[in-house]
Amino acid sequence: MTKSVGILTFHDALNYGAVLQAFALQQTIASYSCSCSIINYRRPGYYPMFRCLKSKSDIKTNILTFLYLRSHLKLRKRFSQFRTANLNSTIQSYSSLEDFCRSDSKFDVYVTGSDQVWNPYLLDRQGGVGSIFYLGFVSDGRRVAYAPSFGNSEVPEVYKERIAGFLKRFDFLSSREDIGCSIIRDLSGLNSVQVLDPTFLQDSSIYKKVAVEPRFSKPYILLYPMQESDLLISLVLNVRKILRIPIVAVLPSHFNPLKYRFADKIVFDAGPAEFLGWVDKSSFVCTNSFHGTCFAIIYRKNFLGVQSILRNSRIQSLLKCVGLSSRLVIDPDRFSKNDDLLKPIDYFSVYKILENEIKNSLDYLKVALA
């Protein structure tokens, strides 16, 4: 009998990593002859059209936002089209814990993850949405955690008891980061498995099938910032000075484009498919995004990153895992033409490590779904 599996994750965000990890996890689970659906949870307060507007006093940025409104609308349309074409979501949508408790839709297995679904600060936000991602509403069915992240190196004291209670109800526990596994053990006394982000469970050939190739014929450096960072800007400018090729900046919709006028091309309207195309065709990647780093590795690109202030464990944990810790730059001004970090990455060695980690991650998922 075919098992029914429901995935609960951040599939609905205007964020490339969120949508693509949901796509990859669903593809993987479906390959095990499971009936797999993304549970269509739409977080309250997450969808206002002009959420990217700043305060009334920030007139300059608001004017820029309106000037780029057409691009923003195109971006939203492309995200919607990608989800419709590539994600099998439940017809029923949910917006509250009560919706889940009242629903007649039941699954044999509930999978939560990946991404920061276990960020403790979600527990008291928007009516306690965080408990939904801990599968607190599930009364009957197997509970599986696949690569959730806490998004923090520690859990505030006020949340520890509540999270420990949720964790003890799981049948299978894992985390994307080593620090996440430590948090699970410290809070619940339970062991967990460190697994890869779902994006690594599919190879580049799968992403190429859904990607849209950019109309840009020259070699280029892809700049993909997830948070504003002067360090990242210094890094990409130094890389351009040495490589002497253009910079293409793919920016989140809330960024101020004036800060990126140095780029040879600014892309404000890329959906997930377009994002994949820009990574695939790039000659070099500079990013402080976790998933930007993931896809640079998946597409076997030469890349450099800088440490994100807000997400201090995710990229470090990934690069440590695959032997690329040196790719996280502390001083972007120290480069020279002969710097080893600008030489091609030895992806043969990286994938020897990565293939073993992929096998371990798939083995965990197979057992959890069996």
Rg over C-alpha atoms, rounded to the nearest angstrom = 20 Å
How many β-strand runs?
13
The biggest beta sheet is recorded as: 6 strands, parallel
Mean pLDDT: 90
CATH architecture identity of the largest domain: 3-Layer(aba) Sandwich
H and E order: EHEHHEHEHEHEHEHEHEEHEHEHEH
Helix residue percentage = 25-40%
First-residue to last-residue Cα separation:
11 Å
What does this structure look like?
The chain is α/β, with parallel strands linked by helices and 370 residues long. The chain has 13 helices and 13 strands. The protein has a 6-stranded parallel β-sheet with strand order 10-9-8-11-12-13, sandwiched between helices. The chain has a 5-stranded parallel β-sheet with strand order 3-2-1-4-5. The protein is globular and about 60 Å long. Residues 48-52 have low confidence and may be disordered.
Give the SSE layout.
Elements lengths: L3 E5 L7 H15 L4 E7 L17 H9 L1 H18 L2 E6 L2 H6 L6 E4 L17 H4 L8 E4 L11 H11 L6 E2 L2 H11 L4 E2 L9 H7 L10 E4 L5 H14 L3 E4 L14 E3 L4 H10 L2 E4 L2 H9 L4 E4 L7 H8 L6 E2 L17 H23 L1
Parallel strand pairs: 1-2, 1-4, 2-3, 4-5, 6-7, 8-9, 8-11, 9-10, 11-12, 12-13
Short structural summary:
With 370 residues, this protein is of the alpha/beta class. The protein has 13 helices and 13 strands.
Properties at a glance:
single chain, Rossmann fold, 2 domains, six-stranded parallel beta sheet, 39% helix, alpha/beta, 370 residues
